[in-house]
Write a structure and sequence with these properties.
Blueprint: H1 3-8, H2 16-19, H3 24-37, E1 45-50, E2 54-60, H4 66-70, H5 75-90, E3 94-100
Parallel strand pairs: 2-3
Antiparallel strand pairs: 1-2
Helix pairs in contact: 3-5
């Protein structure tokens, strides 16, 4: 039996939860959404700040793309925050999204 088979059967699998990066899934979701919306996807930068049971994601985009990310009356920004918070709920992490200019 190979090491992969041992791992698949559960040996050592319990240790993985301690090594995960908090907010990895919400960060990936935010990056995907932001890059899909903007005209300059290479300008998308996400900073991660971890706190006690929460993660703050700071989204930086090109100045010309700021309006696309915020949307009329902030509706796009609010939708992004809602989806990213839902992704964080899967990891039992409270996620806040800040859009920084």
């Amino acid at each position: 039996m190979s090491d992969v088979d041992d791992f698949a059967e559960g040996e050592g699998g319990d240790d993985l939860d301690g090594n995960r990066i908090a907010g990895a899934i919400p960060r990936a979701v935010l990056e995907y959404l932001a890059r899909s919306i903007v005209d300059e996807p290479e300008a998308v930068v996400i900073e991660v700040e971890e706190g006690r049971g929460s993660v703050t994601l700071r989204l930086h985009v090109a100045p010309d793309d700021m309006g696309k990310v915020i949307g009329k009356r902030g509706r796009v920004a609010q939708a992004i925050r809602t989806v990213v918070r839902a992704a964080g709920a899967r990891e039992d992490v409270n996620v806040n999204v800040d859009i920084v200019d």
